[in-house]
Amino acid sequence: MGRTTAFVLVAVGVLVTGCLGGTTVEDPARNADAKDVTLTIVANAVSGGKNARGADWIANWVIPRFTEAQKAKGVTMAVRFEQSGTADEAFKTKVALDFKTGGGGDVVELDGIWLGEFAQAGQVKPLDDVVGKADVDAWDGWKQIPEAVQGLGRFEGKRYGVPMGTDGRVLYYNKKLFAQAGLPADWQPRSWDELLSAAAALKALPGVTPLQLNAGTAMGEATSMQGVLPALVGTGKPVHEDGKWQGATSGVKDVLGLYQRIYRDGLGDPVLQQEANGRDRSFRLFAEDKIGILLEGDYFWRSVVEPKNGVAKMADRDAAVGWALMPAQRPGAGVGGQDFVSMSGGGVRVVNPNSRFPKQAWEFMRFLNSAEAVKASLAGTAQITQRGDVNDEVLAGDPMLSFVADKVLPITRYRPGLADYPKVSAALQQATADVVAGKSPDDAAKAYQDALVKAVGEGSVATG
Amino acid sequence: MAGLGVARAVGFVAPALLLVGVFLVFPALWTLYIGVTDYQLTGPAAAAPSAVGLDNFAAVLDDALFTNSLWLTALFVLGSAVVGQNALGFALAWLLRRVRPWLRRTTEGLVLLAWILPGPVVAYLWFAVLSRDGGTLGLLLDDPTTAWLVQYPMVSLVVFNVWRGTAFSMLLYTSALAAVPPSQLETARLVGANGWQAVRDVVFPHIRGHVLTNTLLISLWTANDFTPFLLTAGGPNHESEVLPVLIYRQALEGGRLGYASAMSSLLLVGNLVVALVYLRLLRRRA
Amino acid sequence: MTPAWVVRRIGLYVLVAVVLAFFAVPVLWLASAPFDARPGLGLRWPDWTFANVATTFRHPYAVTSLVNSVLLCVVATAVTTVSAALAAYSLSRVRIPGRDALLYLLLLLSSVVTGTAAMVPIFVLMLQLGLIDSRFGTALVIAGGMLPAAIFILKDFVDSVPRSYEESARVFGASPGQVLGHVVLPVARPGVATILVWSFVNAWGNFLLPFLLLRDVGKQPAAVLLRTLQDEGGSADLAVIPVFSLLYSIPVVVLYLFVSKRYGFRFHGGIKS
């Protein structure tokens, strides 16, 4: 019995792993003329919970209008919306299981940073292969999406999906605290030293944490996006260049040195960086005038300290909150010789290669990204979208978001969408955690180097 | 066959056996098989997983994170289950025999409440106790600045798990104590034995089997308990990353299923060792 | 009433009071936060309001998810209790070599399957069986994971039922089914009740399996929904979470109170090994 079971098991295992390994691309024109079509859209959004606005938009605006338009063309269209709304990693697992087993939604919303992993696994294919190059090129929407933003949906030079919008990171500062500390209201540091000296001035104020730079593993990717990576591009090199990840390079050591100066000299609160809900706490403390400077995305402005509906409302946001570009280590020392730097991210929608109706899915995708739909998705709020024409219209009244669109997006960088990136990011987070916990930058960099070599292999790590 | 008949006996076992076979044995063995592959959810290894033999196991045993979490798991099981739940459960069962019925019922009710509340809710309850500002413990100790889950993560988890799981031990020992002949306790009292001596010389020999079974079950449950993830997510800096949390993070956050499966297998081996030790002790008694 | 006796008595009550406080204090949050105008993760005297309750009931999936939880758990519990009772009786009365070893092995395997590493096998299995998005199928998986422990515990209860009861019933011509139903089960009732509550509680808190196996948000149970309760900014939605936690806790408490009142909830004679 034991042997039979083992045999059956191995047989099934081999069979399944064999079947699930790769999917072959079928004819993009399959079922193109179907009159009875069912499409499923999968998103990490749920009505009444995470990304509720996006979920309600899909359910109440997109689906009714799209099915209506299809009906006019004589197509009976049913669109199912599979809502999720949990932690990103759990959602990713679910989507990966779907893709692996040949199922999943026809249109799937992913974090742009996962694209490479899915592409390398063969679970997501270039749009040209899935829906046909002619159809993809024919879409007039591409013209409206800035080149930098389109990069979110690309992997190894190929278009895999359509970006859903983007963001940018800046330094937010509390003008009230700045006034008390004798700092200018229109502040713009030009180097890390200037940033730290402002923080040192804020330290004189009782009960105020001068500068909180995300660190540690508890915050996960927030540490990378609002901490390590913006600092790293400020040293002149992005985390991945010429096929290699930065190991214990001088740039990484400098970044860890910056962390040391912040957290060892009492400019930041190290305990907060280790708490499970530390980021929420940093939001609240900023809103309560207890944090002087915080590096955050534009999301902080429109959803966190937003006076009416924010998570940590600041009634006097417009008067009290200032913003400045993140400086490079020294003027001109940033990536590409820049004086100022930023990092961006965003979501991407892809068409599932397993879709029974790739043409219709692409049509649905074009509808989702039409100017009208994108504007409706904002539900009257201002936010940076993927479309330039929509941005020009909706951001006009908001100086902060216009600033991001005009000043930050041109200098920003995106993370490399490679399968190894999450491991590298985790190792970087660990290195900052080590520094916050008291290790020297050199020791932390060495441990980081070892972890990196183990994770991605010696040949992919740059040193020096 | 005590009148049951083979056919009927098999018939009675069949539904359970079928369910266990399909939904438990099959996926469990498959998981063990995945443990010898480099299976990943995404990335290049997802496209073509291959068998890597015992490489995963070698890598796991060489992984400082694994050693760290093995040690933490042992600490967690020893502190919260073997010592904590066992001792408190027995103490409650012993003490509550002699208090007024309403008080006994209230106490038992509360202890049981801690056991039956759903895990996610319990996590919120303990956030409210241990959080930094406004947390109940901070208020009680007049120390609002200590972030207990960050500064003392393992102690917090141990105390939490004692709170969470004592009910089972209490119930079990209550029934076990009911089976101790009162006449023997009375005799012990007459010869002048104090409470502790009575427990050691009269009660313990009677309930030895219960102690062992209880210890086995709560140890296994604690070793495989996932609730610590909800409280600390293994943090800060892996200081409370017990094995189930490590496996979860490797599987879900890292997508490294082969590696995580190898860890699961090792956890299984650990469970097996505990169970064998227990069986051995039990047999020695018999 | 010697002084020593009084001191011991006082000591006993102080001890019980401390334990009582230890177990009671964390639960207080469930009584205060749901009705607080500014609920937080911390205990304080609330600014009383029912607005949170109203907000929670307006949540599109709050009530559905609780109904789903009940469905899922009733099925899982019924399947577990019935098949575990049958199996435990049979295993208790029949001598099979290696029976105990088999039980232990299953108990150990159950810890693997409840872990995350098994999610791919379980997912693929359910996909092949066509049971993705089926609450019934998900309930079966949950039941499968709980069965070994349930059988293990129940078998001890059944072991403690004196055989003489059954033999006398058989003398009067009762069939094995009748013996089980009318003699063994009534005696082992507290055991069955315990397993009933235990399995319900376990299934009630299960997150990962329903999350992976149920795709339609309208079919997902409360354990999954509780993890999606975030506001627009992605932080925990503290207006809904406390009330929802309370609602989510009520069924298990009610079940326990009902079962313990009606059937007793003790390990009578209990687990001996």
TrEMBL record, chain A:
Gene3D superfamilies the record matches: Periplasmic binding protein-like II (3.40.190.10)
Database matches in InterPro entries: Bact_solute-bd_prot1, SBP
Any Pfam family matching the protein: SBP_bac_1
Residues that span the membrane, as ranges: none
Domain of life: Bacteria
UniProt-listed PANTHER family: ARABINOSE-BINDING PROTEIN-RELATED, DIACETYLCHITOBIOSE BINDING PROTEIN DASA
Protein name: Carbohydrate ABC transporter substrate-binding protein (CUT1 family)
Organism this protein belongs to: Umezawaea tangerina
TrEMBL record, chain B:
SUPFAM superfamilies reported for this sequence: MetI-like
Family, per entry: Belongs to the binding-protein-dependent transport system permease family.
Pfam family, one: BPD_transp_1
Membrane topology according to the record: Multi-pass membrane protein
Subcellular location: Cell membrane
A cellular component term, taken from the record's GO annotations: plasma membrane
Protein name, UniProt field: Carbohydrate ABC transporter membrane protein 1 (CUT1 family)
TM annotation in the entry: 12-34, 70-96, 108-127, 147-163, 257-279
Keyword GTP-binding included in the entry's annotation: no
Any GO BP annotation: transmembrane transport
UniProt keyword list: Cell membrane, Membrane, Transmembrane, Transmembrane helix, Transport
Main location: membrane
Protein species of origin: Umezawaea tangerina
Domain ABC transmembrane type-1: 71-278
Domain of life, per lineage: Bacteria
Automatic annotation (TrEMBL), chain C:
Cell location: Cell membrane
Gene3D superfamilies: MetI-like (1.10.3720.10)
Keywords (A to Z) from UniProt: Cell membrane, Membrane, Transmembrane, Transmembrane helix, Transport
UniProt-listed Pfam families: BPD_transp_1
Topology in membrane: Multi-pass membrane protein
Residues covered by the ABC transmembrane type-1 domain: 66-259
Record carries keyword Transmembrane: yes
UniProt-listed InterPro entries: BP-dep_ABC_trans_perm (IPR050901), MetI-like (IPR000515), MetI-like_sf (IPR035906)
Segments traversing the membrane: 12-31, 66-89, 101-124, 136-158, 179-201, 239-259
GO biological process, one term: transmembrane transport
An example Gene Ontology CC term for this record: plasma membrane
Recorded family membership: Belongs to the binding-protein-dependent transport system permease family.
Name of protein: Carbohydrate ABC transporter membrane protein 2 (CUT1 family)
Protein source organism: Umezawaea tangerina
